[in-house]
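Re: beginner question about structure tokens

> Can someone show what the tokenized structure looks like for a real chain? I only ever see the sequence side.

Sure, here's an example I had lying around. Input first:
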Amino acid sequence: MHRAGRWICAFTLAPAMTVPMLLVGFDSDVPAAPSPPPARPNIVLVLADDLDRADLARFPQISALRRSGASFDNAIVTDSWCCPSRSTILRSQYVHSHGVKTNNPPDGGWPVFRRRGLEASTVGTWLHSAGYRTGLIGKYLNGYPGPSVPPGWDDWRVPTPRHMYAQRDFVLIENGKPCPYKKGHLDDVLTWKADAFIRSTPAGKPFFLYLAPLAPHLPAPYAPRHAGAFAGVRAPRTASFDRASSGDARWLARRPPLGRAQTARIDRVYRDRLRSTLSVDDMIGSLTRTLAATGRLNDTYLFFASDNGFHLGQHRLAPGKTTAFDEDVRVPLIVRGPGIVPGATIPSLAGTVDLAPTFADLAGAGVPSFAEGRSLVPLLRGGPPTPWRTGMLVEFFAGHVKKRPEGPDCDTRTRHGCPLPPTYAAIRTSRYTYVEYSTGERRLYDRLTDPAEMRPRTPTGVLARTMHAWLARYRSCKAESCRRADQR
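And the corresponding structure tokens:
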């Protein structure tokens, strides 16, 4: 806690272990308030790590949040990779603009974000300048070592890389002080910290909380209380599971069948990811109960999203992300709050690039001229505004292509390296996905007639020229021009 300029680790041992029992069974199924939005609402973002959309109905608190809020059906990430995606969320810039291209130096990670001076202006500084109490609790950017605290954050509780993904025996940087935790599950500790942040905020002071659990990022550890959940469950055998695409790019062509051992591993990973996500589900329930207990629920917008999706056997790919396929780029985005119609579904194209401008709009904060996303507030209030975007840009940079064509790092390594694509840029519309690879290959997927994205074609003629010109304009846009480039 922060008292008179002195930072003290709140606890390191047993108290964290008592929290999970208090979380189980919390009911977040509270109807949204019919009253108009307050002038200065509280804003909470819960950002999961590598959570796809496929199984949200398995989680009671997330399901309750969906019933009491609005869901975006076409929420798209700018890059299906952790650090580039999170940099976009902090700055509202596409990857080619913020320049954090991968998870690790020299092309990406926290060192590049800091070296480029990007910490000086983020959603944290924007809302802090608008009079909000700001907190970042959980994962920040890949490779953040501590103990520095970036500008704009009043409360900072961020894990260092050591054992972060294992979620045990970890270290939190708590407002500049390293605090070791020898016991406790990391996501449970983050929940406790988030509840304490809300309760410690003075009445009448609006707050912005960016809460970033580690689940279900591999190795997908789970709290001991969830060890028996989802026994015997198998990964979904979707239309593209263990199937080779017809006419796809070379990096996907002629991939062998997964085999029995690989399929069994995919099922194990799937079960572990579900178990790991249960702590996030508990987190949502605990946050909602704390907001209600403190009288803040009806004045708070609660956003739930993920930094990217995840594939599990689709297109014969081992568990991972980074592709332009639907499983990797379309993510959950649920919003509960005052004035939002419970149970609504919003079909308009939205993206993680839009989160920071949306928070600023709700808070009445200024947005720097470099921001490239759009505020989602008109959509949340029944829009869409005219005109709205007709395409979303997705980018992926594979790092040192000549030396390591599979990319600098990944979640799943095989005998043949990481199952990552070459560098590409793509446009996703309400119907099509158009991809240009650094190899010169181009592919167009019609998701209306081919929702599993199994029958791509190489565009030709007017269509090829039109899509290429649009993508060239979009992938080179800067600042306000991106809000023109996102329309065909």
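Each token stands for a local structural state, so reading them left to right follows the chain. The longest helix spans residues 259-293.
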